Amino acid sequence: xxxxxxxxxxxxxxxxxxxxxxxxxxxxxxxxxxxxxxxxxxxxxxxxxxxxxxxxxxxxxxxxxxxxxxxxxxxxxxxxxxxxxxxxxxxxxxxxxxxxxxxxxxxxxxxxxxxxxxxxxxxxxxxxxxxxxxxxxxxxxxxxxxxxxxxxxxxxxxxxxxxxxxxxxxxxxx
Length: 174
Ligand SMILES: [Ca+2]
Ligand SMILES: [Ca+2]
Prior knowledge:
Layout lengths: L14 H19 L7 E3 L2 E6 L2 E6 L3 E3 L8 E7 L10 E10 L5 E5 L14 E6 L16 E5 L4 E9 L2 H7 L1
Antiparallel strand pairs: 1-4, 2-3, 5-6, 6-10, 7-9, 8-10
The chain binds calcium ion (2 copies).
């Protein structure tokens, strides 16, 4: 900070001029110290008044409020309703939970699945929302199409898919 030193002796100026002199010193000091840093929302207040018909002004110090840093992040978990000894004809239901644990809304969420079984891999669909506060900020254009349109921070989408075990799975994967 650049210091401005200006001494005003008590009898050097009439009252009104002395007040203006003090205001000039104060504003000069503030202008020398405060430059917008562009690291957030910078704000500075100015107060105006008069003394014996002459303007008097002052400015606050700069108040800087940093903006949030974007955090893009999702979590996905997958579970099966059967954990052992499936036989031909058994239906395994998979549940996938996708949570937006970042701080911005993520769009067009889909899941892909692969496996080593004989039949086609499960296709996640039947999406349902767990809407945590604030409510109503996650939306879906088309129900149960395997795509969730807008997932807001803190909310979770649950997808499900099924696979019917084939005899060849039992023959080849035991
Ligand atoms: Ca929500
Ligand atoms: Ca959908």
